[in-house]
Queue: 3 jobs
Job 1
Amino acid sequence: MAVADDRRRYMPLPDDRQPERGQPLAYPEAVLLVNPVEAEFTGEVDDKYQYTCENRNLKVHGWISNDPSIGFWQITPSDEFRTGGPLKQNLCSHVGPTCLAVFVGAHYAGDDLIPKFGQGEPWKKVFGPVFIYLNSVMDGQDPLTLWDDAKRQHVYPVFGSNQMAVETSGWPYSFPASEDFPKSNQRGMVYGKLLVRDRFVNSNDMPINGAYVGLAPLGEVGSWQRECKDYQFWTTTDENGVFSINNIRTGNYNLYAWVNGFIGDYRNDSSITITPGCNINVGTLVYEPPRNGPTLWEIGIPDRSAAEFYVPDPNPLFVNKLFLNQPQNKFRQYGLWERYGELYPEGDLIYTIGESDYSKDWFYAQVPR
């Protein structure tokens, strides 16, 4: 199974989840493998949630067979039809071999991301299309290179290549006949520049490389995170704060943004109407993060991630070996919520300003006992 460069592995079998081979853990999806068909998996936890992926990174995932050496890949050139925005996590692959295309999912979010409809409310939406890609290698060649091919040929540009055009650059597809799937010339574009104004950081308005800018349905500040009935279109700024959002479906939108390193959410006060073939220049937008004065202290980094905080080692009885030497994925190990009570049995954490180090002294999740 391959989901990302750092999440590729031989997988247990579905049979290993049966009662005589697997011990159920705290929730049905997690099973401790006590007598797996392949002995190498003994003592590991199988849990499909360990392989979830954020929408923004969920472009290609799938499976490789060694005999014959064939790869089966699901490639999603656009996540415009997925719910919850670029940071929403979705299931993608797990034992089976299972390969999922999740378009609407409440995982990690709950009821807010379940679409709700009033009596007689009209609604329709196009999910996909997604691209299924099969590849193979000759006998004697490394089957794992099939992942590199799927990723290289169909997700990232290959210059000077005569291979199939990159799927992402070919979006929207031209073949769907449905009038509900607009072609490229029936869509619009929005471009501009985003600057951050924070006089306690810099006396000048600042361009930030990698800020997220997107169009989502009309709503309040930050509402894109719970939006689950329509379409969203996101991009990131360059080092000058310049952005361009392409292939936007017609409709009325708000422009939203957030910037790593600065708290809060941005929403432009004016709505944007996309018409077929439009190119809208929104000019220079300025986000002024909320504050009442200089920052006295803060724990961590306002980047919508807990990666900078302390993530404990897993209980050695409940491990996924894939993540044992991957600090960036340690948080995916099973049962870390129980480690909180084990590490701090006498009471909750106290963070002492000027003394504590959030990378060592602050648990990455707020866990009830």
Job 2
Amino acid sequence: MKEEESIRLDLNPVGSENENCKRKNGSEVFKLFEPRKTLSDDFGFYEKCLLFLTQAGYIPIAAAMLMTAFMEPSPEWCDTIKESDSAWQFNEHREFYSLSVESGFDCQPNSSQTTAMMSSLLMWGALVGSFVCGFLSDKFGRKPVFLGCLSMVTAGHIALSFSNNFSWLTINGVLASMGFFCGGYMVTNFVILTEAFELARSRLLVVSLNGWSISMAATGIIASLTPYWFTYHVIFAVIGSILTIVSYKMCSESCRWLSANGSHQEAKRVAFQITLCNDKREIDEDDIIILKWYEVLGFSAPTHTEEKKTWKTLFKSTRFLKPTAVMCYSFMASSIVSFGFYFSIDILPGNRYYNMALMGILKFILGFTPFFLNRFITKRIIAISSIGVCCLAAVLILPIQYYEIQCLRTVIILLSLVISAGIDPTWKINHLYSAELFPTSVRSMARGVCNAGGRLGSVMAPMIVYLRTLNLLIPNVVFAVLLFVQLVVIVMFLPDDSDKDANEMNDE
């Protein structure tokens, strides 16, 4: 066993049976190295559990990021409050009794500023967390950072459930902290997930199953059923606690990360553990000596490099600079538009909870389109089509708002849903490219930069939405311009599926 690393056996998956097979019990022959070729090969029991846990983890994350969408009561409800201080006890209109209501900041002349400030605190925290946690994930591992972020967001929900004992300054500090770990979670959960798969089509499927949209719908539904800040945070604290414990027990460190950092023995141990969990075949001591970690999993051989990568690598290397810049802007523009419509949900006609739930459901449905359409067209064309439709919808909203056509208010809802949900295929392509365009040694850092672009967009979104107090048209004009520029950037600079630069997943 001490000489395990010195043993070299050239196993070629398309070679002779003598090279790829060994005998067991004198007669039975089985292959040592079975490369993954189909979705069923890629989706074992472990990979399915990892997919479920990482995406279910978005439930407490979305609840934290979107809580301010419910904080400010509608103007009609504020009028009711002025008539009767006890109106909240009856809550006939199911308005959300938020922390800002509890603290007396809502239904005041500056209440919109308070909500915008709290939203910005969350997003600024997420911006910083994306950078920091992306670096920590590449340095210390995917699993500890992923679990640490989820547990700290859960701790934030627990803290806010006792926030009636806190000062307003302390509450805002908790919000900024939760935003930090939300940003970190959105970087690291995706990396540990995509590195568990070999096939590009499998990674596209897990991107299409991204948990944000379903968690967004769950947030709207739970907020409508429990329109009270204490119950809201307790429910998500319980969910987060359960998911943290189960994820700690079930999830393993990324073998790709372990190998890229020189821990080949540990990568092999984890690979055998995953293989046994998937119940692929029996493992004996001879296999441990002969096989490499990627052969155990059925992955293709990585291209290993001893060069240490740093933050400067992303910005000084011509190989990484263009994809980093393109993906960072695409994330930022998509985030501004997405969060802009999330935070504008209170001015849309109808029930804000159901509008948010409907947005989440539509995003989930449309999020599957890249997986199905990629059989016929490239990811780049899918992204172009998605942004093109959203840009057109944003332009169509403007004349309806400008001329204040009351009979077309429902059309504004439909167009808003088209934009908020229709941009989701581009989000999925963005996430996939941000993992596949970069090698393992800088993947989390690159994801951190891209996600920081997204978080910068989410910071800017509430500020842009606040400009509606000056003129209702301003936010949608900004959204339309951003979408048009994003369309141009994707057309000119995003690589196609067949390009070598778009398939870096195995380059370590």
Job 3
Amino acid sequence: MSRPADIFSLLSPRHRLLAGLTLALANFMVVLDLTIANVSVPHIAGNLGISADQGTWIITSYAVAEAICVPLTGWLAQRFGAVRLFTMSMLGFGLFSLLCGLSMTLGMIVVCRIGQGLCGGPLMPMSQTLLMRIFPPEQRGRVMALWAMTTLLGPTLGPIVGGYISDNWSWHWIFFINLPIAALCIFSALTLLRPVETERVKLPIDYIGLALLVFWIGCLQIMLDIGRDHDWFGDPLIVALAVMAGIGFCVFLIWELTEEHPIVDLRVFRHIGFTSGVFTLALCFGAYFAGIVIIPQWLQLSMGYTATWSGLATSFTGVSAMFIAPIAGRMIGKTDVRLMISGGVAWIGFATLWRTQWTADADFWTLAMPQFIQGIGMPFFMIPLTTLTLGSVRPEETASAAGMQNFLRTLAIAISTSIVLTGWGDGQRVSRNEMAGTLHADPTLADLAGRGFTPEQGRQVVANLVDAQSLVVSMNHVFFTAAVVLFMAATLVWLAPRPTGRVDTSAAH
């Protein structure tokens, strides 16, 4: 194996540039797939003959599978080598993308999305780790800026691309478009990255820890997914899943904390800076993702938007974030990162609170402007958080800390999706009943009858209006709760001591 000082001479500047673009493209594809399906859920649900609530399994199954695999990335990279792991993951991601596009049932597409998430999980951390490996220190700043731009650009373009494809082609193509990108990345990795392969270490496999990880996360997610259709804890099945998830989680904690070679290193949580940082991250992404899940569905189901236009309305967060990211990057080292994070999270909270004023007759720019304003705060939250969390652990713990950070982020997104949709649906039913109990519809029905509507048609018009209003009222309540969570997270980060010294972010993802 080459000494670190010799690694940079293994690739010519041209090959290094091509390899860097390949790795950035791979990261972009994985991040894009996290949101590209969001606006397409109504199309997929309609085509497969399932409800919109069942369609959200397509989102959560990918996120949870990724959450399971990401903490294992460090162990897998040592076991198989970083380049080999990247190549195998990209091959699996492309294969499962093909199968997702060919799916004709909900069961098949959920299983294939799980496979897609398991293979896609290592691609983000491996793309960043390999970028740090092939570029010398003086070039890493520009390279990681490119990587960060793909991370911000993916969620921005996901709803737009997914909406356009669903409206003009077919939802199957939101998965098929991954195939040429995957093929290009595999070819480039085999051609360019072989000289910088890492040394393989045959580590013992913590089979019990791995099984416990899959068990408790699987029970938790199934409970969250089917709970809405089973009256939650009124159903013995949901109670059993909750008990199994709780017991599995406790046993997993005990096992991993006492195992000599744990599959997931939980000891990093002894650092208060890391713990407060990652829980801030989890709360923020859970609250932030509430809007990403609800807004496209509301726009399509109630406001008459196409998937393309609903994607455009939600994309402005990424547009403003991309312009602000360089400013946030330059402030690190000159400003207390806790202040940056707290201010950025509070900014996002105020933007979320702004959305609680939405009505059923809001125009496009009324909906898009809070998204744009929210994006200004995103870089001040995302970029310095890595400095805080990874600066709070020992250097040899950086990889484990980064894996756990991404694990909690993706798990928070999956849990948030299920909880938010449940709250939205329950709130809509409560609001509808309250409106129906106080509604005096006789003058409206008489006016509609004068316009030529039959009594049945008039009652249907009134029912549709009540449904539309109850949807937006319930959604505003969800946004208010999300804003409260964000304000709590803005204070939580101050439990951390101020990080000192430079942080090696090569393992961060």
